[in-house]
Amino acid sequence: MKKINLKFILLVLLSNILLAQNIDTKHLTLNLKFDWQKRQTIGTADLTFSVLHTTDKILLDAGYLNINSILITNKPLKFNYLGGDTNDNLEITLDQFYTPNTFIQLTIHYQTMYENKADPNSIWGSFGKGLRFQQPTSTSPTKRKQIWSSGEPNYNKYWFPCNEDIADIHTIELIATVEKPLMVISNGNLIETIENKDSTRTYHYNSKMPFPNYLVSLVVGEYVDVLQNSNGIAIHNYGYPQEFEAVKATTELLPEMMQFIEEKTAYKYPYPHYTQVVVQDYPFPGLIGQHRASIISDNYIDDYGVHKDFKYLWDGVAVQALTNQWFGNLLMPKSWDDIWLNKAFGPYFAGLFTIKDNSKTEYLSYYLPFEKNNALANWNAKNKHPLVTQNIKDPINLPNDNDNNYKGSLVLRMLQKEIGESDWWKSVQLFVKSNANKQINTKDFQQAIEQTTGKSYQWFFDQWIYKMGLPRFKVTKQYNTSKKELKLIVNQLQNKDSSTEYEQADFFQGKMDIEIDHNIMPIQIQPKKENIYYFTLSKAPDFVNFNFEENWICETVYLQSTHEYLYQLSQSHDIVAKQKALDQLVAIAQDTSTSPMTKNKIIHAFQQEITSNGYWRYRQYALVSLRKILTLPYDDYTTTMLLNLIISEKSWLKASAINMLGNTKNETYVDIYQKALYDNSDRVINAAAIALGKTKSIKAKEILIALDKKPSWKNQSRISSLNGLEQLGDTSTVDFIIECIKDNQSPRWYLATPVWDYPFTAINTLVALGKAELAYPIIFDRFQKSLQDNDLNDIFQNVQLIDLLKLEQSKEVYVLLQQKFKNDPDILKTISMYESNFLESIKK
Length: 844
Description:
- This protein is α+β, with helices and mostly antiparallel strands.
- Among the domains are: about 330-465, Orthogonal Bundle (Neutral Protease, domain 2), CATH 1.10.390; about 470-560, Aminopeptidase N, middle-beta domain (Immunoglobulin-like), CATH 2.60.40.1840; about 565-615; about 615-844, Leucine-rich Repeat Variant (Alpha Horseshoe), CATH 1.25.10.10.
- Helix content is about 40%, strand content about 20%.
- It has 26 helices and 28 strands.
- Strands 5-4-8-2-1-11-14-13 form an eight-stranded mixed sheet, with no helix packed on it. The chain has a four-stranded antiparallel sheet with strand order 9-10-15-12, with no helix packed on it.
- Strand 24 (about 510-515) and strand 25 (about 520-525) form a beta hairpin.
- It is globular.
């Protein structure tokens, strides 16, 4: 039996470990050209680096690249690459052994072989890997000619060879040549633009500040630059030439956003300029915050009217992208374990800005529920892990992880409350100042807090960041009349999850505010099963609001009476508690065992909230809640209230009032609806069109068809027209609807939903009129052409439209799909899902 040389085996293992970590990239220069027909990039990568230990071999990452040659000082090198996309899969043998601190430059000539195709499961936008090529097709002739990159977390290797290690930061130079009138947008400064004799342009970008590889970005397309300035910092907003005014409308607050973040962090924007560029087929909110050049969905761009209605939505995306220039670029994570700091500070600052720009009520009534619902959905979907997950082997799921984004944002909010306003901002400012242009981890953040406050917050970081868990409280109360004392009992019910390997928090602790009869009182949750609190009160409280403004991420079991909910609705200072009361009172009113007297009390309480001077979104929430419990016909008070709202309110609240009045189907209000069709808000116009259709007025057909000609952003007037015609139910409008379906030239949102995308609205309307078969030849012809164009987005958009028709003959579509993609198991799986849903729909 041969002796085993353990020393030799250890040396081999050690050399393999070191090989995977032996490169420190200094600079990367990319020189690129593009083959649009093959959807391929032809590139040269000049990589300057040093080794971390003496070696003659290095490893790089490559994702399905065709490596033509690798040179060092014009001498070809041997390399080993099997053409796949595993980590550290390009092994290069250098021309000699090199020692650390020696700069080495390789030149790699390559071509991309991987195409970043659209995701048929998400045809309203998807990220994919590497470069996505797009150009006009037979289905979508107005689709823009574009290329854009998706690099996070480790997908840039699909368009250039590199070291994807997040800790390996480097500078980058990008030179790309494109045909006119296309332009190139990338990271860093635009050094020069060269006009070539062959009707092409060469763009040369250079970034002198090092940053992680995943933030390298590229966009190619036809753009116009809407230039802004914020205290000497140039802000470039690249939008489509036909949308110049809309780009101005959408981005008008961007300088204010920059100044807001500067003020809060006490750190001036760290680069000479900032760039935003919009692209098609990119999801909301996107992988925002690439180095100095944030890529955002082109659905971000709206005209002044639409942006005014929706700025709470898209302005938040812009703030997140801008925030990541500080948290992610200026402060760079040392590893994927700490990526939550990037992700969390983005939505956190978006919430802060909406408080400043709109109101705290806007944050609490819109942002907070969105963040909390996403965080809890992650938890309930069994996607459970600490915010800092040690030694992440594959960061593939991190970009879409709701914990890092939304739970992280909520944890920052809790930490702010725990520390106190003054010390919190001192801590954040110290964190930024001390770590600017450095790679950071969560310990650095914790250190800044503890240095500022002089206190240990290890317990907070353990229970919310380093460990896993979600508190579940059961709240009960007792009032002692003789002692005039309220006893509040808070039990922690959460159990440890036996299915996870992560360390879990036992019992939670921290500051919490509660509200007793609209008085805010602080309590301290202790880390134990049961906490008991006593309050001296002259009478039993009308309501107790636990977890004021839902500052804690938790689940709560707390039974309250109708009386308590009614008082909470009318008296609470907490908009979240008021909305919770509305929800509970709706359930009580809909309960058949509830007495008419109690139901009338609830209706009256809702009406009082609607006619108050409260914030519009809350009053709209109350109005929608009232609609759920009222039956037709409405009484005179309700009708008068709705008419007054239509006169005095605007946008969303006015639209909701029209929607509710429209349920009466009363032709008396035709003139009101017709007048509302000229409103400044498309939300109001859509509601008025639907209400007008419901009246069945003989005037409605002509008015609604004429509405299609009213100028609107992305043909919202057409969507409103079609929605109204669906309610009208007049089959003589079929020719107009068919023309809308045939029209694939007009501007639209590519969102694949009847609410926002007019071809889907038109199909819905035609189906409602019982004429679905008339659309089939049109969409089926486009479907066949889209198979030839080989554009997944078009193919499955047509499939969705055909499925909406619910016709037996549509089964032939799935035969063709299975033939087309017979060698692609992933797409076949998607086709099977589509087909299953379709077959189920035609049974109904």
